[in-house]
Design goal:
Layout (H helix, E strand, L loop, with lengths): L35 H6 L11 H5 L3 H4 L5 H19 L9 H11 L5 E12 L4 H4 L2 E10 L4 E10 L2 E10 L3 E6 L3 E8 H9 L4 H4 L4 H14 L3 H17 L4 E13 L2 E15 H16 L2 H21 L1 H5 L3 H9 L1 H16 L11 E8 L5 E9 L2 H6 L6 E12 L14 E2 L5 H23 L4
Parallel strand pairs: 6-12
Antiparallel strand pairs: 1-2, 1-11, 2-3, 3-4, 4-5, 5-6, 7-8, 8-9, 9-10, 10-11
Helix pairs in contact: 4-10, 4-12, 9-12, 10-12, 11-15
Length: 461
């Protein structure tokens, strides 16, 4: 028996195609389906055999489930992430074990009421593009005070270590303020009520649905209630043991280092323990494949999804998030109508895929993430470098390859975080600007941007 959609050969009892996810019809073809698109891939422009056809024939695990009804992915991803992030990490008690130390430090990030963090992003390119991109860096300073519902962040662009442009934003429950000395001369602001009115009149309504503080609070309450569930506790315990048992071989202790932070407005050095987290093909197979295999056979996880997924879906529906995301309610309801049967079939197909070679294939993945943790088990800095891969491939026509370095530094927590409101004197209300004034503002920003590019990058306009 063959799939009507992609032509893959199927078992007689198959209900779904294991390659494209298509549901098997009652009158499935007994002859293979000829896919001309695959034929086109078989030979390159020179008429030679194209090795890339192998990647089409040996579809990955992601391809097998790409068109699986989205509610299965939603159930597994949301519940698993909630379990592993909010549940597994919290009860672990730190000690000298690098695994426990790392999990505890990362887990504590969700407990802080206020955080001051600086993110630095830098592109590293070779070839002719490197002359420009290697000199660029983006620096984002952010402060968030959850208790007082306010925050501040500044996005800065640097070229050859010189600051060329900054734009800062302050927000609280009543107002949002914007300031940029380089792009526009006046401080701008808009009241939250005016902003909400503008959003309701625009196409942004569906995008912002579900993002209000009230809706965020309802999701936080759902997470707290979830932790009290017996099935959740069983899942938390099981995967806590799994991670502690298997993560050790991928985490190395590099000893002590100093991290420079700006805490409460003062620059200081914090002594930290540096850990290296290695993500490679073995990690993907051991941790990724191992977790999926455990989940596919876990009755507590199944019961947790069956009980809590409807609650979460209803909550997201009330918040307006489901409609905004395009969630297919009909497929979800069909799946839940016969949950046990549908879940078991899906998990059996997952196990079949895992028993294959999908997660064992070499992808030449090798990334190191560095975590620096202080003596109070607080994450102070993490950094890593990512091969841009697809983006770099796109740049290959310009004789360039590249990577992106990312660094996060946590300057302070809770009482050490101070969010100051900018001076409102002379600030201009965006909601009161007419069309001419708005166009003038955009023109001013464009002109100043061209000046920056001309002066700093020597790009004439």
């Amino acid at each position: 028996m063959f799939c009507e959609k992609c032509g893959a050969q199927l078992e007689d009892s198959a209900k779904f195609c294991t390659v494209c996810g298509q549901e098997v019809g009652s009158q499935q073809s007994a002859e293979p389906y000829i896919n001309n698109e695959v034929d086109k891939l078989s030979y390159n422009d020179n008429g030679g055999a194209n090795n890339e056809i192998n990647s089409v024939e040996q579809s990955s695990l992601a391809q097998k489930f790409r068109k699986r009804p989205m509610f299965i992915g939603l159930a597994a991803v949301i519940v698993a992430l909630v379990a592993l992030i909010f549940g597994v990490v919290k009860p672990l008690i730190t000690n000298r074990n690098p695994v426990n130390k790392l999990i505890t430090a990362v887990g504590k990030l969700s407990n802080y009421e206020a955080v001051d963090v600086t993110a630095k992003i830098k592109l590293n390119m070779d070839g002719i593009q490197g002359a420009i991109f290697d000199n660029f860096a983006f620096v984002i300073d952010g402060k968030t005070d959850i208790n007082n519902k306010k925050g501040f962040f500044n996005i800065g662009v640097k070229f050859k270590d010189n600051s060329i442009a900054n734009i800062s934003t302050y927000y609280d429950e009543k107002v949002i303020m914007l300031k940029s000395d380089e792009l526009f001369k006046d401080t701008l602001f808009i009241n939250i009520d005016d902003l909400n009115a503008l959003i309701k009149e625009s196409d942004l309504q569906s995008v912002t649905d579900g993002a209000s503080s009230k809706n965020v609070e309802s999701l936080k309450k759902f997470g707290k209630d979830l932790e009290k569930d017996d099935n959740f506790k069983a899942v938390r315990k099981k995967y806590g043991k799994f991670l502690k048992k298997n993560l050790g071989k991928f985490i190395n202790n590099n000893g002590n280092v100093d991290v420079k932070v700006v805490e409460a407005g003062k620059e200081k050095n914090i002594k930290c323990n540096e850990l290296t987290f290695i993500v490679n093909d073995e990690f993907t197979s051991t941790i990724g494949g191992g977790l999926l295999k455990e989940l596919s056979e876990d009755n507590n996880f199944k019961a947790l999804v069956k009980e809590k997924l409807p609650e979460l879906v209803e909550l997201l529906k009330e918040n307006g998030a489901l409609e905004a995301s395009g969630f297919d309610m009909d497929k979800y309801q069909e799946f839940m109508k016969d949950f046990d049967k549908n879940w078991d079939e899906a998990m059996n197909e997952l196990k079949t895929a895992l028993d294959g070679n999908e997660l064992k294939e070499e992808r030449n993945l090798n990334t190191e993430l560095f975590f620096r943790i202080d003596n109070k088990n607080r994450l102070r800095q993490c950094f890593f470098e990512i091969d841009l891969q697809d983006a770099a491939d796109a740049l290959s026509k310009f004789n360039s390859n590249g990577s992106m370095g990312v660094e996060f530094t946590f300057n302070g927590f809770d009482k050490d975080v101070v969010v100051e409101k900018p001076d409102e004197d002379g600030a201009i209300n965006l909601a009161e600007m007419d069309e001419y004034q708005l166009m003038s503002l955009l023109g001013e920003m464009q002109e100043n941007l061209e000046i920056i590019l001309s002066d700093e990058l020597k790009l004439g306009f």
